[in-house]
Amino acid sequence: MVSTIIPTLNEEDYLEKCLISLKNQEGCENFEIIVVDGGSSDATVKIAKRHADKIVTSLEKSPSIQRNLGAKMATGSLLAFIDADTVASKFWLKGIIETFQDQSIAGVTGPLFPLEKIKGSYLYNLTNALQKILVRINYPLFWGASCAFRTNAFWKIEGFDEKLLTSEDHDISLKIRKIGKVVFDDSIRAFTSHRKFLENESKAFFFYIKDILEYFFLRKIRTRVHPT
Question: Three-class SS of residue 64?
Fold first, then answer.
C-alpha cells in the first residue's frame, strides 16, 4: 500500500486535476488518496469528496502539520506527498514503488516540470539538474510537491518539522538521509503549477535558490510559535 497525501487550502482550480492523475495511475493498484484540508472556503473539500479515499480537516493552515496529519491517517508502508497544484505522470506511483524495492532507500524525489506552457521552461531543467547533484553528494533538498518516504523512516525523524513555516521539505530530506539512502529517480515525473512565477518567469530558478538560502539562514526566524 502506498498512501498519497495532499495538503490543501482553497485549491478548487487545481485539485481535481491532481486527484484524477492519481486515480489514473498505471502499474500501481494498491494505493490510497488522503486529502488534508486546512479550512478551505471554496469547493476544495467538495472536489476531494468525489475522488479521495480519506478527507481530514486540519485546525491549522500549515503544510507540515497537514502532511503529518495525513501520515497519521495513512495505512501504507510508503508515504507519497504531492501538492494540490501538481499533476502526477501516469507512472509516478509505479516509479516510487520500484525505487523502494531497494530496502536501503528511505526517500525519493523526481523531476518537476511546469504544468502551464511558459517561456522559461529551461529553468526547471536547471533545478532538476541541481537536485540530482545535491542528491549525489548526499545533500538532498527535496521538493514537497513530489516526494516519497518509507513510513517507518518518516516517523523515526518525527515527520515534517511543524515549527517551520518554510523549507520544511528541504529539512526533512536532510534529516532522512541519516536513516537511509535518498535518491533522485527520473521516472517519478510530476508537473507543478508555475502560478507563483507567471508574473516574472525569469525569477523561477532564483526563487528556488532563495528558498534554499532561507532554510540555512532564516530558519530560526521563519518558525511557527505555538501558544503555551
Answer: helix
